Amino acid sequence: MTDTITETLANPLAARDHARSMHGTVTESMPVLPPIADDLPADVEPDDHLWEETIAAGGYATRRLTRGTRLRLIDLKGDACASLLVFNAEMPTERLNVADTVKVQWNAYLGAGKLLLSDMGRVLLSILEDDAGTHDSFCGTSSAATNAARYGEGSNRGPHPSGRDRFLLGVAKHGLGRRDVHPCVTLFKGTRIEADGAITPQIGPFAPGRSVVLRAEMDVIVVIANCPHVLDPREQWTVTPLRASAWRGPITAQDDPVRTATPEGLRAFQNVEDYYRR
Fold first, then answer.
1. Each residue's pLDDT expressed in tens, for the chain with a length of 278 residues
2. Cβ pair 205, 195 in contact under 8 A
3. 3-class DSSP state for residue 63?
């Protein structure tokens, strides 16, 4: 088999023919072009379906989403781990601030109705639906060093890639670099802080099919890494595919219950509205 591959690569015409023969091949983890799905909300028109992709175990994905877009993430097999970076698409120096997300909302546990806030006091994403309930705003993601310590190897091109290195690949697609890989939140794998301050990871595996639906409150860049949680205690590097779907939707109304739920959240939405009033 190796000799056949070598011969193909050595012959440009054979390499071309091989590449063309792969047209139409469908794998478990890949973008669907054009995006098609049979389980979107009934009021979503086909032309409003913007993104459909299954992110491989150890993979990453990134997308620019306009204000009002809904992003649904599904843990297909019960062991996905979706770490998120979020940027203001117009001005990526504004990005997710996990400390403010926790502090401003007086709550460190993400779920339906919670907001992901920027370092400028604005809402980047809001969580509309959540039937998972296990998320993490404390620990960040894995690195090459943490994976090497746990699995014996952690390089980006090896069998145990880290969330941080996958983030580097994702942000690079938007002209960003290492200094732009900021602290993240993680969905589908959770942590709880005990009374004595100990961190208890909630790793699962869980029932397949759990989902989270987020709404873009600004034009944003989202980068998703699907790598094992940094506190996953299992000896084997373990994670399963993650599905992402996105569709157009209306921007948040003045009387939206997520917008008006708390004085702090309302102020963050007003900051967004002031930004778009320019």
1. 556 656 666 778 877 877 787 776 667 777 888 899 999 999 999 999 999 999 999 999 999 999 999 999 999 999 999 999 999 999 999 999 999 999 999 999 999 999 999 999 999 999 999 999 999 999 999 999 999 999 999 898 899 999 999 999 999 999 999 999 999 999 999 999 999 999 999 999 999 999 999 999 999 999 999 999 999 999 999 999 999 999 999 999 999 999 999 999 999 999 999 999 97
2. no
3. strand
CA 186 to chain centre: 8
